[in-house]
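Hi support team,

I've been running sequence recovery on a batch of backbones for a student project. Most finish fine, but this one hangs at about 90% for roughly twenty minutes before it completes. I'm not sure whether the input is malformed or the queue is just slow. I've pasted the structure tokens below so you can try to reproduce it. Let me know if you need the job ID as well.

Thanks,
M.K.
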């Protein structure tokens, strides 16, 4: 049997073998083993960080970069960055073994190499990266220098991790940015609330491009609409940086906040119910489609069961839409279930752009 025949028959085979799954052309319907009264929504996320990162130039590394340590488990990582110079990709020289030096009060501190290059490459660090441990510098300000020949314009990423530091940057933020172009956030540093204006912010699109943003009292605001809708091509990442004076130390922290740029590409308009047999109920859900794509609906049928009004069955169906249209859903009733029936639309999914809209509406 050739591949074309197999692909043609597969939807029919699924329908015949599962009983609860239907597939006709681009339409698929599935009834869950158990009914769900509602879908839990997680609109926000809570993140914390005891690390920071910053871009430093060769000149800064030669003159000295000031830093503070608040942990007995501190790791300093330095990675050469790649940039375009005169139209060609150029990467700063690899960090030589033993070239990272830390000084306190003008005295050089003895450091321990943390990882070898092969191990760091396995963790995804750039070629030529190096790391040292600075566990003995807890509670001290220090100056970092790179003692090798580099150009002033060379660029490196400095990344400091302090795994058991009591000074953490905590951020609560939404998982999605809605149409108004604002991402509400709340930030704390070591339990102390921070104003959004105290944070430095930058944003990256899924393709890595920088996105212009501003910090205002009610969150992060966009200077222009975002390009990518949904999570199909990846997530947007908001980077937040903070420097706070704590116990005589200038403690830095950085954190990444991933989110989806969400837009309402479709809406549930109305639905109808029809009892097609003593054991089956059909629903037709009308969708107002603003953007062509594949959309799915999850819904639960409620009715009388064992003398109580309860969730009887949950079905999810999806199909391709080029315009506003109706999506059918089928429900197989548990034995003994009767009407009156009521339909609750739990969720609408834009499968083309990977967007999820929790509805939970009856």
């Amino acid at each position: 049997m050739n591949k074309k025949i197999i692909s043609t028959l597969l939807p029919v085979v699924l329908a015949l073998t599962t009983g609860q799954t239907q597939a006709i052309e681009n339409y698929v319907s599935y009834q869950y083993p158990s009914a769900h009264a509602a879908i839990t929504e997680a609109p926000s996320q809570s993140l914390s960080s005891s690390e920071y990162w910053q871009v430093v130039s060769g000149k800064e590394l030669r003159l000295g970069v000031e830093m503070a340590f608040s942990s007995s488990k501190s790791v300093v990582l330095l990675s050469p960055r790649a940039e375009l110079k005169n139209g060609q990709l150029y990467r700063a020289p690899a960090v030589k073994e033993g070239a990272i030096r830390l000084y306190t009060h003008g005295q050089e501190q003895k450091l321990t190499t943390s990882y070898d290059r092969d191990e760091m490459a396995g963790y995804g660090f750039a070629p030529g990266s190096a790391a040292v441990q600075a566990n003995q510098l807890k509670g001290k300000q220090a100056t970092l220098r790179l003692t090798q020949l580099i150009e002033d314009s060379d660029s490196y990423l400095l990344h400091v991790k302090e795994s058991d530091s009591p000074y953490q940057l905590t951020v609560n933020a939404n998982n999605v940015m809605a149409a108004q172009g604002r991402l509400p956030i709340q930030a704390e540093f070591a339990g102390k609330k921070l104003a959004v204006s105290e944070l430095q912010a930058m944003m990256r699109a899924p393709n890595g491009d920088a996105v212009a943003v501003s910090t205002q009292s009610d969150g992060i605001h966009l200077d222009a609409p975002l390009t990518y809708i949904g999570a199909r091509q990846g997530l947007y990442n908001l980077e937040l940086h903070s420097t706070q004076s704590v116990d005589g130390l200038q403690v830095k922290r950085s954190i990444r906040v991933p989110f989806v740029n969400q837009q309402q590409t479709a809406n549930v308009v109305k639905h109808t119910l029809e009892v097609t047999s003593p054991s089956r109920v059909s629903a037709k859900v009308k969708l107002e489609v603003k953007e062509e794509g594949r959309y799915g609906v999850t819904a639960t049928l409620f009715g009388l069961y064992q003398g109580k009004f309860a969730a009887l069955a949950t079905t999810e169906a999806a199909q391709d839409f080029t315009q506003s249209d109706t999506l059918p859903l089928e429900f197989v009733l548990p034995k003994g279930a009767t009407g009156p029936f009521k339909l609750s639309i739990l969720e609408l999914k834009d499968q083309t752009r990977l967007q999820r809209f929790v509805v939970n509406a009856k």
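--
Follow-up from support: It reproduced on our side and the slowdown came from queue contention, not your input. Residues 168-245 form a domain with the Immunoglobulin-like fold (CATH 2.60.40). No action needed from you.
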